[in-house]
Write a structure and sequence with these properties.
By secondary structure, this protein is α/β, with parallel strands linked by helices. It folds into two domains: 5-86 and 123-194, Rossmann fold (3-Layer(aba) Sandwich); 206-322, Alpha-Beta Plaits (2-Layer Sandwich), CATH 3.30.70.20. The chain is built from eleven helices and twelve strands. The protein has helices at 17-30, 52-58, 72-81, 96-110, 139-154, 217-221, 249-253, 267-270, 283-287, 296-310, 336-347, and strands at 5-10, 36-41, 64-68, 87-88, 127-132, 163-165, 174-176, 192-194, 206-207, 227-229, 235-237, 259-260. The chain has a six-stranded parallel sheet with strand order 4-5-3-1-2-8, with helices on both faces. The chain has a two-stranded antiparallel ribbon with strand order 6-7. Strands 9-12 form a two-stranded antiparallel ribbon. The relative contact order is 0.14.
Length: 349
């Protein structure tokens, strides 16, 4: 029997009528699709780890499609930080510029030998597909993509005794693979659950561990106690609500562009794959430095000082936690020119 799939629709925090209509049209279009269960939750970024909404999402056992107003990368790593893990599922519905950037990132990754945090992590054996609602205003585009993903996964066969989750908003009885379709299999109509909960808008950094090298520059730079380390000394966002609202400074000093602020107005900071190849360009260009030509680090220091002063503390400028991006040059492999210089030195002339 083929697997069911869960779709999570994350609502816009703005309650814009046009956005609400798109969300509801997508839900309505999936309502009578067999084998697709839908859960409607508030904005993913605003949901707290201990909330009903996040508890609901943790009950999803198999593959999941997340439809939100966030960039794909941001949505994936927001789930990850809340212990909802999985491998990135390939989606075909995406912005054309994003597709080009993904191709550049893949090519750049072939030459990248750095150790990433994700290489040491164990992920749940499932796929998480993230669709960005900003890409299209047509519900049909998202409905068709969800159906395509479901069909792609429908060829997977569930072994005897495997468990499929038949609902998503709260813990539900598991559906055993030896049940007939009428008892809860792939031919069962969709189950739609809506999770309502109140909560304010939030602002905190989200780490992309597929890029993070655990360099610790963010924890050195941030002076508000946002970052910490886990039991194996891996960087994490330990106190997210300590973050100063509107301040993206730490994302500017991250050498791997691994830190996102999903609600920031600048796409590269908000999680767009635009600028994935930023390792090869000047960060001040990527993040839009002012006309006077300040570097990304200088901008970050100014933003941090602004928040320090607002909190009644002293500004520190460029004196604390500013990364020195060239410190590791001595660790790079020697090239032909280095070998030639060594030979000349050996001649002692």
């Amino acid at each position: 029997m083929a697997k069911r799939i869960s779709v999570v629709v994350s609502q816009s925090p703005s309650k814009n009528p046009a956005k609400r209509k798109l969300e509801e049209d997508i839900v309505a279009g999936l309502l009578f699709e067999n084998g697709i269960d839908v859960t409607i939750v508030p904005n993913l970024y605003d949901i707290k780890p201990e909330s009903t909404g996040m508890l609901a999402l943790r009950q999803i056992a198999g593959n999941v499609v997340v439809v939100s107003w966030l960039f794909e990368r941001a949505a994936h790593w927001i789930l990850d930080r809340n212990a909802i893990t999985g491998h990135v599922g390939e989606v075909l519905l995406k912005n054309e510029e994003e597709e080009e950037d993904d191709a550049e990132a893949e090519h750049a990754g072939d030459e990248d030998e750095k150790d990433r945090v994700i290489d040491s992590r164990s992920l749940k054996n499932r796929k998480i597909y993230c669709l960005d609602l900003k890409i299209s205003n047509r519900a049909e585009d998202f409905i068709d993509e969800v159906k395509r993903i479901h069909q792609e996964n429908a060829v997977q066969i569930v072994g005897l005794g495997d468990i499929i989750n038949g609902g998503t908003s709260m813990p539900t009885p598991a559906i055993d693979s030896n049940l007939s379709p009428d008892e809860g299999g792939i031919d069962q109509p969709s189950i739609v659950n809506r999770v309502e909960e109140s909560g304010g808008r939030r602002w905190y950094p989200v780490i992309d561990y597929s890029r993070c090298t655990n360099c610790m520059e963010c924890i050195d730079f941030c002076l508000f106690g946002v970052y910490g380390v886990d039991a194996v000394d891996t960087i994490l966002v330990e106190q997210p609500d300590n973050c100063r609202k509107g301040c993206p400074a730490c994302s500017r000093v991250c050498p791997e562009n691994a830190i996102m602020f999903p609600q920031h107005k600048t796409p590269a900071i908000a999680g767009s794959s635009d600028g994935v190849a930023s390792m090869k360009i000047d960060l001040s260009q990527l993040f839009g430095a002012p006309a006077e030509g300040k570097s990304a680090e200088e901008i970050a220091a100014l933003e941090r000082d602004e928040q320090l002063v607002a909190a009644g503390r002293d500004a520190v400028g460029m004196t604390v936690g500013i990364p020195r991006r060239q410190d590791d040059k001595s660790e790079q492999a020697k090239d032909d020119l280095d070998d030639l210089v060594d030979q000349l030195n050996d001649l002692d002339i």
